[in-house]
Amino acid sequence: MELDRVNVHYGAHHAVRDASMVVRRNQITAMIGPSGCGKSTVLRSLNRMNDLVNGARVTGGVTYRGQDIYAPNVDPIQVRRHIGMVFQKANPFPKSIFDNVAYGLRINGMTDNLADRVEQALRGAALWDEVKDNLKKSGLALSGGQQQRLCIARTIAVEPDVVLMDEPCSALDPIATVKVEELMHELAQTYTIVIVTHNMQQAARVSKYTAFFSADLDEAGERYGHLVEFDDTAKIFSSPSDQRTEDYITGRFG
Ligand SMILES: Nc1ncnc2c1ncn2[C@@H]1O[C@H](COP(=O)(O)OP(=O)(O)OP(=O)(O)O)[C@@H](O)[C@H]1O
Ligand SMILES: [Mg+2]
User: Fold this and answer.
1) Which helix (DSSP H) or strand (DSSP E) does residue 209 occupy?
2) Residues of the chain where predicted confidence (pLDDT) is lower than 50
3) pLDDT at 253
4) Residue 215 β-bridge partners
5) Model pLDDT, residue 172
6) Separation of alpha carbons 140 and 132, rounded Å
7) Ligand with minimal distance to 39 CA
8) How many C-beta atoms surround the C-beta of residue 17 within 10 A?
9) How far is the CA of 171 from the centre of ligand 2 (A)?
């Protein structure tokens, strides 16, 4: 995917200015930066999730495999099938484990071999062994870490290309976090992953590329988010080009 000078407004507030970066296929790209710098906003612009936010307006170019995902003839529902999302707080539906995973498959008419598809998605999310004898149990009865993996299974069930994750581990304990991080490495063999994280060690551990965002005040004193630096994760964390990145990763700021 490619972002070319993406700008996002919420009503009159110009929240993100001129963010340009690339998301490489089958790699994990991390987005880091202080609170309010626009990470979630930019992430949501990658699958038209901001369409669902009142007053949000995205301008600039977002292309997926060379195609403008904001072009008038593009169906946002189709965009979200190819570019799925996992949220910060696990949000299983009040349905059985099976029906949670089958949900998107049914909506998208992918109901041939439904049970196989559900099993594959649960295996892909490293949850199958823990739930295979209890598929009728409510998704809400699982632990937090299991619920997040259930949501990952629900997302990958419809076979997206890109999986967007907004702080997927922030509500998890260290053991569940390690599980989800290991899972990310496995998923990256099949999917392209973009993860927003506040945890810099996590960004350094899991990602190949990192985008560092920051928030600044404009001439009128209005706060806006922007992309400071995008590079190989190894470079961002060892010898960043921008002093602001250096200050952030060394903990002098944010
Ligand atoms: N739904 C919304 N309506 C209005 N303004 C919003 C909305 N979501 C975000 N904003 C504004 O856009 C700016 C960027 O917010 P965003 O949530 O993208 O930041 P973030 O980097 O994800 O922060 P955090 O690390 O706290 O999650 C902020 O000024 C925020 O107030
Ligand atoms: Mg956020």
Assistant:
1) strand 209-217
2) none
3) 63
4) 225
5) 83
6) 16
7) 1
8) 18
9) 13
Non-local (6+) Cβ contacts of 42 within 8 A are 3, 6, 8, 16, 19, 31, 213, 225, 227
pTM above 0.85, yes or no: yes
Measure the CA dihedral 36/168/22/7, to 10°.
-30
- The answer, yes or no, to whether any atom of ligand 1 lies below 6 A from the CB of 53, is yes
Strand order in the sheet with 56-64: 67-68, 56-64, 2-10, 13-22, 223-232, 209-217, 28-32, 192-196, 162-166, 83-86
**Residue 71 burial class via C-beta count within 10 angstroms: exposed 0-12, middle 13-18, buried 19 and up:** exposed
- The C-alpha atoms of residue 146 and residue 57 are separated, in whole angstroms, by 35
78-114 confidence digits (pLDDT tens)? 999 999 999 888 899 999 999 999 999 999 899 999 9
pLDDT reported for residue 170: 87
Residues 6+ apart with CB under 8 A from 91: 151
Q: Is 53 helix (H, G, I), strand (E, B) or coil?
A: coil
What is the total residue count of the chain? 254
- In the chain the domains, ranked by start, together with CATH numbers, are 2-89+162-249 (3.40.50.300)
DSSP count for the chain of H helices, then E strands: 10, 10
The CB of 225 under 6 Å from ligand 1? The reply is yes
The three-state secondary structure class of 31 is strand
Residue with token string 């972002």 = 3
Tell how far the Cα of 48 is from the centroid of ligand 2, in angstroms: 16
In single-letter form, the type of residue at position 58 comes to V
What is the Å distance from ligand 1's center to 97 Cα? 31
**pLDDT value, residue 242:** 96
